[in-house]
Amino acid sequence: MAQPPPDVREDDCLPEYRHLFCPDLLRDKVAFITGGGSGIGFRIAEIFMRHGCHTVIASRSLPRVSMAARKLAAATGQRCLPLSLDVRAPLAIMAAVEQALKEFGKIDILINCAAGNFLCPASALSSNAFKTVMDIDTLGTFNVSRVLYEKFFHDHGGVIVNITATLGTRGQVLQVHAGSAKAAVDAMTRHLAVEWGPQNIRVNSLAPGPISGTEGFRRLACFRSLSMWLCEDVIHLLKLLSIPSQQTSPQPASKLFTGLWKPGLPQTPLSCLLLDLEAGVPG
C-alpha cells in the first residue's frame, strides 16, 4: 500500500507530492468531476492536475467549489473551473457541461463522485429520505453521464468513472439507502459499459473502502473496525481501468493509474472494481 501522505486539513492540497507516474501523464486532458469540491472528488482533482490535467469541479455550493478551485490551481499550476451544479437537475447539468466545453473545448474524462449520505436505521427511514439518496447517487450519475454522452462523448468518445462504495457487497447497518444506491450505480455501469463501449466510451465504477478525511468515514468509523484507504490512494487505483480484458482481479495500488484516459483501449469485463477487498469478506 502507498505510504500515508503528509497530514493535511480536510480539503487542503498536499504540501508535497511524489509522482509515481510520469508527471505529464494526463497533459492537456480535461476531467469533469462532480462532487469535486471536497473529499474524494477534491483529491482526485488534485492528483489529476498534478499529472497535467485541467479540471472542472462541480457541486451545489459554488462558494465551496470556488475556494477549492483556487487551492487546486495554486498548488498545481493547472486550470480548474468551478461550477454550481445539482446532479438531480438535467437542465442545470446541460448548462454546466456547455460552459465547460466553451472554456476547454472538450471533456475527456467524467468522474461521477457526487453523493449524499447519512446514518439511519431502515425501520426509521422515510420513503422521502431513501429517495433523496437514490436521486443524488443513482439518478444523478445517470443524468450527468447521459448529458456528457449527448453533448460530447457520442461523437468523440471518452472515459466515465463512477465512484461507488463497498456497502453493497455485504450488509452495513444504518446504510440501506446508500448501499442500495451504490449497488444500482454498479449495475448501471455494467449496462453502459456494454451499450456505449462500441462507441469508444469506457465506463467503469470504482468502489473504494473507507477513505480517511471524508464525511462518510467520520460518520461510520465508530461502528466497526475499518481498514483505511487514504485519499491519495484512490487516484492511484484508477489504473485498474486499463486492465487487459483477460484479467479478473485487482492489482496492487503501486501498479495502478496509467492508461485511464485512453478511450480506445478494449473494454474489460471487470467494469465494477472493488478496491477494498476486505470490505467484501464477512467477519
From TrEMBL:
The keyword NADP applies. It catalyses: a (2E,4E)-dienoyl-CoA + NADPH + H(+) = a 4,5-saturated-(3E)-enoyl-CoA + NADP(+); (2E,4Z,7Z,10Z,13Z,16Z,19Z)-docosaheptaenoyl-CoA + NADPH + H(+) = (3E,7Z,10Z,13Z,16Z,19Z)-docosahexaenoyl-CoA + NADP(+); a (2E,4Z)-dienoyl-CoA + NADPH + H(+) = a 4,5-saturated-(3E)-enoyl-CoA + NADP(+). It is found in: Peroxisome. Its EC number is 1.3.1.124. Auxiliary enzyme of beta-oxidation. Participates in the degradation of unsaturated fatty enoyl-CoA esters having double bonds in both even- and odd-numbered positions in peroxisome. Catalyzes the NADP-dependent reduction of 2,4-dienoyl-CoA to yield trans-3-enoyl-CoA. Has activity towards short and medium chain 2,4-dienoyl-CoAs, but also towards 2,4,7,10,13,16,19-docosaheptaenoyl-CoA, suggesting that it does not constitute a rate limiting step in the peroxisomal degradation of docosahexaenoic acid. One of its GO terms (biological process) is fatty acid catabolic process. Residues 29-214 form the Ketoreductase domain. Belongs to the short-chain dehydrogenases/reductases (SDR) family. 2,4-dienoyl-CoA reductase subfamily. Pfam families: adh_short (PF00106). GO terms for cellular component: peroxisomal membrane. Monomer, dimer and oligomer. The lineage of its organism: Eukaryota, Metazoa, Chordata, Craniata, Vertebrata. Transmembrane segments: none annotated. GO terms for molecular function: 2,4-dienoyl-CoA reductase (NADPH) activity. It is an enzyme of class 1 (oxidoreductase). Gene3D superfamilies: NAD(P)-binding Rossmann-like Domain (3.40.50.720). The gene is DECR2. This is Peroxisomal 2,4-dienoyl-CoA reductase [(3E)-enoyl-CoA-producing]. Keywords: Fatty acid metabolism, Lipid metabolism, NADP, Oxidoreductase, Peroxisome. CDD domains: TER_DECR_SDR_a.
